[in-house]
Structure formats: C-alpha cells, structure tokens
C-alpha cells in the first residue's frame, strides 16, 4: 500500500471514530452528565417500558466496587441485600440489610424502615449473573427512593476484594 | 462456478462480520446503563470512563458494521473492527488473569453470562474473519 493510501485510510478511520464518538456522546448526553455528577439513578437513561404503556421506567445506575467501599466506609449509603433471607443469614456485606426480591415484589412498593427517600441505596446480590439486585433497584425507585444504585459485582466481588462480611448463621 | 464462489466468499465474510457487529451494537445502544456496568466489571477504566465507553463503543461498532455490509470504506471499517477485537481480547485476557468471574458484555448486556475464555475464542475467530476481509479487499483493490 502506498503512503498516500495509508494517509487516506488513516484519515477515514479518524473521521469514523470521531463521528461515532460525537454521535454516541450526543445520544447519551443525559446519562453521561448524570454519571459525571454522580446523580441519582432515577434521572439516568430512562427507557421505555412495555409497549402500550405510557410509563417511562427508570433504571438504577451501576456502581463499581471502589465507590461502594467508599460509601460503605463513610456510612453514606444503605446497602440492601436482594438475596433470600437464608443466603443473607449465611453471609452478607457487613452492615447491609436484607430485602429479598421475592418479599419486595410481594410488597410492590417496598419500604426500608428508617431510610429516607433521598438516601443513597445500593442493592446487591450474587454478582453479575444475578439480576435480582437490578430488579430490586427498579422496585425501590418505583417506591420513591431517589438515589438507587446497583452493585453488580455483588457479594462475590466484595468478598474477593477482602472487604468485611458478616453472617455464618444457618 | 469457481469465480462465482471465489467472489461470494469474501462478500459473505464481509456481510457476516458487519452483521455480527450491528447485532452486538443494538442492545448496547438500547441499554447503555447495563453495558456501562459490564464495562465497569472489567475494573480497567475509572467509573466515569466506563460510561463514556458505553456511550461511544456501540456506535462505533454500529458504524463499522454498516460500512462492511454496505461495502463502503471497507478497509477503514475492517481495520477499526480488527483494532476493537484486539482491545476486547486484551481486556478479556486481563480479566482471566485476575480471576474475575464476570460476564463478557459482548452482546446483550442482560443476556446469559458468557465466560471470558469463550468470548476470547470468539473474538479470535472474528479477528481471523477481519484479516480475511482485509486480505480480499487488498486483492480487489489491485
């Protein structure tokens, strides 16, 4: 390939990457602005719910291990375990409270006693293959909690990080 | 017959590769928050940059996929796809070395979990397809 051809290809690649980046950032501007501010989950990237429904479903924002640890240590967040009560009793993130998805679904609009509606809530379950925390997060947003996050790495990532867990009861 | 087959194979490869990247892009564009979570799971990028990646990457995949299917700027599109595959393979290898039990986040962010080694093999196959597309493209341009 001649030098001229390489220059042309490089220029094309730069244009494609730049245009895609520009379009992607413009398309997701609200999500990016919220992520930059660390804004409440309810405002980020709402997506349309089932066809025929006029409601726009708000999704909890994902949150990474480092941020969970920081909020946990500073006592700024309430960690909510979406797994079953038995799993919670066996082992859970130190300081977390239990709200199994099954129970929350039964309640429809689950309430966390003593937790303000504007408190930072982080739902977790058994890691990335587990979707209960995301489902619980959605229910909590529906129930009026404004700052709901989902820690998708969940208990396995927390434990692997060497961070404290409690439990041991059968 | 031979020439028909030899002209159809490069076309099929190019369209298949383009379709794979469009198929990968659409669910991520529809659900960038979940995809951001998949990116964050690799623990490579800072928190905010996981969102930037989730915002930009699917559109790059979509654009390159469309270019390959339409047969426009094929070399540039294929080179970007090749580079993306190399980056994906590096990230997957890093996840495997660190023993992260994560979903690769390659296609549907909320789909069934795909182990990193499965995704790595798949990406190697896509890289080979990209190399073939580039090779045929070079022959065609002569």
TrEMBL record, chain A:
Transmembrane regions listed in the UniProt entry: 6-27
Domain Rhodanese: 73-167
Assigned keywords, A-Z: Membrane, Transmembrane, Transmembrane helix
InterPro entries named in the record: GlpE_sulfurtransferase, Rhodanese-like_dom, Rhodanese-like_dom_sf
CDD domains assigned: RHOD
Source organism superkingdom: Bacteria
PANTHER family cross-referenced by the UniProt entry: FAD-DEPENDENT OXIDOREDUCTASE, RHODANESE-RELATED SULFURTRANSFERASES
Stated name of the protein: Rhodanese-like domain-containing protein
Species the sequence originates in: Geomonas anaerohicana
């Amino acid at each position: 390939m001649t030098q001229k051809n390489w220059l042309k290809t490089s220029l094309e690649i730069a244009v494609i990457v730049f245009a895609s980046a520009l379009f992607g950032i413009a398309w997701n501007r609200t999500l990016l602005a919220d992520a930059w501010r660390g804004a409440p989950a309810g405002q980020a990237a709402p997506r349309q719910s089932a066809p025929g429904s006029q409601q726009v479903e708000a999704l909890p924002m994902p949150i990474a291990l480092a941020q969970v640890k920081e909020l946990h240590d500073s006592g700024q967040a309430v960690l909510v375990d979406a797994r079953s009560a038995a799993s919670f009793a066996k082992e859970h993130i130190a300081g977390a409270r239990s709200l199994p998805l099954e129970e929350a679904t039964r309640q429809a609009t689950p309430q966390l006693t003593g937790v303000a509606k504007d408190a930072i809530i982080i739902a977790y379950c058994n890691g990335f293959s587990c979707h209960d925390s995301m489902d619980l997060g959605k229910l909590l947003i529906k129930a009026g909690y404004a700052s709901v996050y989902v820690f998708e790495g969940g208990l396995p990532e927390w434990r692997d990080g060497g961070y404290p867990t409690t439990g041991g009861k059968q | 017959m031979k020439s028909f087959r030899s002209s159809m194979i490069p076309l099929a490869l190019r369209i298949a590769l383009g379709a794979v990247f469009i198929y990968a892009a659409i669910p991520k564009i529809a659900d960038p928050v979940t995809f951001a979570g998949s990116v964050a799971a690799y623990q490579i990028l800072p928190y905010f940059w996981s969102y930037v990646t989730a915002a930009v990457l699917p559109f790059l995949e979509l654009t390159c996929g469309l270019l390959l299917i339409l047969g426009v700027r094929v070399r540039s599109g294929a080179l970007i796809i090749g580079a993306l595959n190399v980056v994906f393979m590096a990230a997957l290898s890093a996840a495997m070395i660190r023993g992260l039990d994560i979903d690769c986040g390659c296609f549907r962010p909320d789909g069934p979990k795909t182990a990193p080694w499965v995704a790595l093999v798949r990406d190697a196959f896509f890289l080979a397809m990209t190399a073939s597309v580039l090779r045929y493209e070079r022959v065609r341009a002569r």
